[in-house]
Amino acid sequence: MPESHLPCGIADQVIAVRFFKDGKEAKSRSAGSTSWTIGNVRTVQKTYSVEEKLDKADIEVEYWTDLEAVDVPVNAEAGLGL
Prior knowledge:
Layout: E1 3-7, H1 8-11, E2 14-21, E3 24-26, E4 28-38, E5 41-50, E6 58-63
Antiparallel strand pairs: 1-5, 2-3, 2-6, 4-5
């Protein structure tokens, strides 16, 4: 199973990790994560399960920075559909 060791600030902002073999995305899913702190250093380890064997792969990591909460006005109507 592939594992990633990322700096804590980035690890907390990771949205998706994708694995590519010959340009085609391999099916994968998160298989768990763990973190620990020693002194002032925090380590985050994320593990992924990939459906096919990958001897070699390109890995794409998507993460967001500068996240902020915003209020978005929404008008919605709901009904029973009867």
